[in-house]
């Protein structure tokens, strides 16, 4: 037993009741600070004789150590309790499903371009590209389209103001000028498709001033109309994924091809709904022909030695037919709900071998 047991018990009770680190610090100052109770006891030792001072000093030192130990133990307990409370409150449920990341989608027109490239790529066609702003010569003159031709009128073609290097500039009305550039730059054999944006001064429910086209061109020494027919029948059957799709070639006229043809696919319109692939009706789908020898000559290719075929397809039209998109104008609205509905998964890259769509 020591003379300080009561004091020790009182301090221990205070320590046990301290709710936080601040309360503990207040106790430390009250007991061990400069004016603290235990500090006062040490100061009082001087008044005692040597014998009593030694005994009391030892007892006060023991008391001091015990109070310090009690303060530190309580401090540790409070810190442990605070940590335990945080761990409980911030516990992560690792079994919850991950938050979905925002997903993009491939625009149906991009999907169609990729499919068309996959089909013609398999047949050995390379992809060629060129500028949207073209010379009047590349877009019209080289293609044997005379100055008085209706396509050249302001109401059909967007002409740019002024001239560039003495040439009148237009927004290309088809992607043929890409093929003209290819013929001017390289000698046959040529086997290319030219997908891209095209422009015509026309805007209603079925015409947009900006639209998309794929043109194709083969030039070689022995290319003939049989190649043209086999190539386009193969393309249409692969694109619409109908092995026995009926295809019909109808005589037509384009200044840049001779002979020229329009191509129809079999369909039915029974009950007011269009169904591709069977039935008694026909649906016009593209234009084609043997490249006019004048066009070859204009582009620096000897028409006595070389001949070829060309075709042009509207991409919006075949996309609407294949994927059942009823309104042309929705292609350019940038409506995310529309894109999520009609769009395609980014990783489902079309390939003829792995399957084109979806
Ligand atoms: C259509 C018709 C066609 C071509 C485009 C072409 C290009 C060159 C030479 C000859 Cl460089 N022809 N292109 C030929 C026939 C038809 O498009 O109705 N397209 C939607």
Automatic annotation (TrEMBL):
Its EC number is 6.1.1.20. Signal peptide: none annotated. It holds the Pfam family tRNA-synt_2d. GO terms for cellular component: cytoplasm. InterPro entries: aa-tRNA-synth_II (IPR006195), aa-tRNA-synth_II/BPL/LPL (IPR045864), Phe-tRNA-synth_IIc_asu (IPR004529), Phe-tRNA_ligase_II_N (IPR004188), Phe_tRNA_ligase_alpha1_bac (IPR022911), Phenylalanyl-tRNA_Synthase (IPR002319), tRNA-bd_arm (IPR010978). It catalyses: tRNA(Phe) + L-phenylalanine + ATP = L-phenylalanyl-tRNA(Phe) + AMP + diphosphate + H(+). Its main location: cytoplasm. Residues 119-350 form the Aminoacyl-transfer RNA synthetases class-II family profile domain. Mg(2+) binds at residue 258. It is found in: Cytoplasm. Keywords: Aminoacyl-tRNA synthetase, ATP-binding, Cytoplasm, Ligase, Magnesium, Metal-binding, Nucleotide-binding, Protein biosynthesis. Its cofactor is Mg(2+). It comes from the Bacteria. Belongs to the class-II aminoacyl-tRNA synthetase family. Phe-tRNA synthetase alpha subunit type 1 subfamily. Tetramer of two alpha and two beta subunits. This is Phenylalanine--tRNA ligase alpha subunit. It comes from Defluviicoccus vanus.
